[in-house]
Each structure stands twice: as C-alpha cells, then as structure tokens.
Amino acid sequence: MKFFDSHVHMVSRTTDDYQRMAAAGTVALIEPSFWQGQPRTEVGSFKDYFNTLIGFERFRASQFGIKHYCTIGLNPKEANNEKLADGVMELLPLYICKEGVVGIGEIGFDDQTKLEEKYLRIQARMAVEADLPIQIHTPHRDKKKGTQRTMDVLEDTGCDPRRVIIDHNNEESVKEVLDRGYWAAFTIYPHTKLGNERLVEILREYGGERIIVDSAADWGISDALAVPKTAAVLKENGTTMETIERVTYGNPLEAYGQSGQVSESDWEDAAGVDPSALFAGNTLFRGGQDVEEAMAQYKVIK
Amino acid sequence: MTLEEQLLVILRRTASAEAMDWLAQECATQRGNFVQRSFYYAFSGVSRRFDKRGGLQLQVEDEPQLTALVEGLSLQGWDQFRLGRVILLLVLAEQDELIFMETLEKLLGTADLREQAAIYSALPLFPRGEQLVELAQDGLRTNIVDVFDAVALGNAFPAKFFADDAWNQMVLKALFISRPLYQIFGMDERANVHLVEALVDLAHERWAAGRWVSPELWRSCQKFVNELALADLTRLLESKQPGQREVVALLLADEGSNEGVGALREQVADLIERVKAGDLTWDQVGRDFGKDSFSVFDDKQSEPA
Questions:
Q1: What is the ipTM of this complex?
Q2: N or C: which end of chain B has fewer CB within 10 A?
Q3: Which residue of B has its CA nearest to A270?
Q4: CB atoms B114 and A99 under 8 Å
C-alpha cells in the first residue's frame, strides 16, 4: 500500500525515520514550515530554513525514494514578533511559487492575538494572489472557537474553502469544517492530539470525503509512521480499504494537487534511488552503505 | 533576430502555447513596469507553466546563430525551466544597476538548484560583467554538478572575466569532478604557464596513485609543449589508457624545439597525419575519450573531501 503523509517535519527526523517510512510504503510527504521549538530572532534564519526545505531536505528524502514537497509560511507563534514577521512577509514572495511548493502553510492561530490575525490575513491574500492552497494550523487551546475564527478570516479574505486544508481537527471541530466546505485533516500524534483509534469512529460518522490523516511528526514525541500505523488500525476495525486509501493517500494528493506542483507521476515515473548522488558534497550513505542494505538491516532489527 | 527572439523560437519548439503566452505576457508587463515581487513570482513560477521534465529540441543551425549574438553561448543540457528563466532574466538585465544587483542577489540567495543553474547560465548575457565575477566564482564552489556546469560549460563568462588564478581553479576542479573540458569556452586562449605547471603536477599525482588521467588534461599544455619534459611525453605514450596516443600526436604535431621527440613523433606518425588533415582535434579527444562525456548530467562525481 502507498501512503502520502501531508504533514511531517522531516528536518527534525533521522534517517532511521526515512528508512522506516520508505519501508512502510510512504511514497511522498509534505513538510510545512513551522517554528523550531524556540523562536527565531533573525529573518535570515527563516531564509536558511526555507532554503533547507527546498534544498537539502528534499535531497535527503530523495535518497530514500521519497518525494518531498513543502508549504512555505510564517507560523502563528512567531507572528507575534512584528518586526520579524514583517521581514518574513518580504521573504515569502521569493519562495511560494517555487517548484514543489504546494501551498502556504502552516499558518493560522496559536494564542489568537491580533498580530496572529494580521499575518494570517496577509498570507491568505498572498495565497489567493499566487493561486495556492493553504495549510492551516489550528490552535491547541480553545480549538473550536479558534478554528471557527480561522475560517471566518479566510472567507473574509476571499479564500475558496476547497483549496484550504484545516489540520489538527478533533471530534469537536470537524463537523463545521466539513460543513463549510474545507478539507479536514487529523493529526495522529500521541498524548496531545489524536490517537488513531478515535479516528475509526470519526470515519464511521463522516465517511472518507475530504478527510486526511497525517503524522505531524516533529521534534516532540511523535511518530513518523503514524499514517501507515493508522491505516493498519483502521483496517483491523473494519474501515473499508477504499476509505483507508482515500484518507491516507488519495485525498492529500487531490487537495494539494490543486497547486499543480504534485502529481502521482512524480513518484510513479521516478528513477530509482541514487545513493551516490551528492548534495553540496554531502552523502548520507557514509562508508559505502547503500539503501537496500540499510533497509535489510532495518528489517532484521525489527 | 534579437537574442530574445532567437531563444523564444527555441523554447517554442517544445513548450506549450499556453506557457509561451504566459511568458510573453510576463516579459511585457515587467518591461512596462518592473515590480520585484511579481518578478519573483514569474521567475520561480516558470515551474508552474512549463513542463518540469521538458527538454529543448536543439537544431544544427542554433549554435552558429546563437554564438553570432553571444560569444560561446551553448544551450546544451538546458531544459524548458532554464531557458524560460533566462528569458525573464534578460528583462531584469535591462533594469537600472541598483535594482538589477539587488534583485539578482535576492534571487540567487533563495534559489533552488534549477534556479541557480538558470542564473549562472545567464551570466554572459548581463551588463557590467566585471561586477559579477565574485558571484560566478561562488557558483563554482558548489559541489552540485549542474550548478558547476552552468558556470563552467558553454558559458563565455569565465573566459572573458576571470583572472588567471580563478580560471586555473575552474579548469582543475573540472578535471577533479570529471567534467568535459572541451565544453569550456576559451580553453586554448586562456591556457597559461601556471595552469600547465598545476596540470603536470596533477598528472604526476595521478600516475603515482595509479589512477586515470583524463586525456583532456593536456589540452592547456598545447601552447607550452616545449616546456613539457620528455619523460612525461614518453610516459604518456607508454600509457595503456585510451586517448593517450592521440594526445601525444596533438601535442607533437608541430615540430617544436623539444629535444629528442623525434622518436616519439615517429611512433604516432599515423595520428599526426590525421591531426594535420584536421581529422583529429582536442574537441574530438574530449568527446571520444572523456569520462562519461555523453552522460554529462548523470555524472555526480565529486571532489574528494
């Protein structure tokens, strides 16, 4: 089975994760721009971060046969530093139309401050201007109201809900998100977000239309295999294969495919993994270890 | 035809009519009123209009027509993305100096690999080239083959603007990463005695290690053949590696002042005849005996760390 993890922060993950993801069937992923666990203090840090997303991280994923896409944007936490945020707004136009950039994201609310709303609006307008999908981060605290407020702002800015993916939903937020015409993503993330058994019930109630499962794996306790693992749990609990395929592969592809920057042929026609390829002189396979050998070792360990 | 018209003709052979209309519109809009932000959108947005795997269809008459307009310009290895972006960069080149430099530096500082290749390929088309030398040298510091090639191959910028030390570094690095030297513009004209010394040292190093020595290494030594040691020429001739006899024939085709080369000349008399008949050239040696010279863009060899 093939999987498309439409939200995963690979800069924080090791090559072990890439190996396991590839072995588990993840063929493509999207890395949203986010904060990095602590606030950045210089605009230049964003530039280098964005350069990593379109450069080295894309290359790193390719060495494991995984296609890497990204969304570019200013996250709500750092939107509260106005001077920094203004600098990032000047930087964004240089990135958002690049090859493999499938949307503006992840943007939205955190504390739901005025400044967060200001930069959400600016970036939503930018997405409309550049004809790009939007990936929305919904707040952990006061989620239901925060999600409603996000949708109000987006609609006020002229965004088409069919081009917006609202992430980190739960049982309380999903109904209105779907009713208003948006894509609803569920992040399977231990402890703080959603366990995958809860998704069985959600899919039973809402079906698979416009619903997406992702891992949002990052630098916290999280699981880069959340999407394939959820597929397994759903199957054991009687979800149809058609629905499973839809929420773990077909839907994210369709939603972000609206950017014109991702299509199935990107990985179906791709050449094999080239372990000798170099990025700026770096190879990930030191000591002559190649991908197949690495995979075999992983299988043995498991 | 202007350069831009010529480039549009070539791009139109493989690109969609829709993409071509978009490009023409973008160029016209930016010419009317240059706005940095929309230029960024257009430059990166080439990836949204053209075919990401779309190549070009070059024809025999392209090269003479292009080089009549811009010395040494070759589109070998370019794709639709690169050519579309270079056409946009021609519009940038018309802007005033400050805007041009600021925009170019911003683009390069945030460019992905294919965008970098486009910018470096456009270097010989920009005004005030002497101000761009640092930037070109920076491009050569990459270990990404496509970026290195964009500066070094089919590009007259280095030959025109590089000082000898930068030129020599470029040629040596091209050898280290197995790039086809015959595609470097100005190879013969820019040969200099310091380069020859470094090349001979490199050959000695490779011989000592029992490694392959590209026959193209000797091309820059042609003008300085009288400085070459007889021992080196003899060693070349004794080498079993392909292309080395041809190298000796090319080096010794003209009777120089080297003492004692008569015997060597005799051993390659057949090939010297071919050189004199114009039937054996350095370009041909590069094409026939260079490492993987036909799969230039798949060869991701790097310098040793």
A1: 0.76
A2: C
A3: B53
A4: yes
- Which pair of tokens denotes residue B15? 């690109």
Q: Report the DSSP pairing between strands A67-72 and A211-214.
A: unpaired
- Report the number of distinct structural domains present in chain A: 1
Tens digit of each residue's pLDDT (9 = 90 or more) over A149-158: 999 999 999 9
- Sheet hosting strand A164-166, strand order edge to edge: A3-5, A26-32, A67-72, A101-108, A134-137, A164-166, A183-187, A211-214
Q: Can you state the angle between helices B282-289 and B244-252, rounded to 10 degrees?
A: 170
The residues of B whose Cβ lies within 8 A of any Cβ of A are 37, 40-42, 44-45, 47-48, 52, 81, 106-107, 109-110, 112-115, 142-144, 300, 302-303, 305
Q: Does residue A302 form part of some domain? A: no
Domain enclosing residue A162, as ranges: 3-277
The predicted pLDDT at position A272 comes to: 61
Is there a contact between A127 and A98 (Cβ–Cβ < 8 Å)?
Answer: no
Range of lowest pLDDT (A139-153, A262-276, B27-41, B225-239): A262-276
What residue segments make up the domains of chain B, in order of their start? 1-129
* Mean pLDDT over the full length of chain B: 91
A130: chain B residues, CB-CB within 8 Å: 41, 45
Give residue-wise pLDDT tens across range B87-118. Answer: 999 999 999 999 999 999 999 999 999 999 99
Q: pTM of the full predicted structure?
A: 0.84
- C-alpha dihedral sign at B43, B45, B47, B49: negative
Q: What percent of chain B has pLDDT over 90?
A: 81
Q: Count how many pairs of residues, chain A against chain B, have C-beta atoms within 8 Å.
A: 59
Q: Please check whether residue A283 lies inside any domain of the structure.
A: no
Look up residue B244 and give its DSSP letter.
H
Q: What is the CATH number of the domain that holds A61?
A: 3.20.20.140
pLDDT band at A274 (very low <50, low <70, confident <90, very high): low
Q: Is residue A286 part of a domain?
A: no
Subunit contact B300:A278, Cβ cutoff 8 A: yes
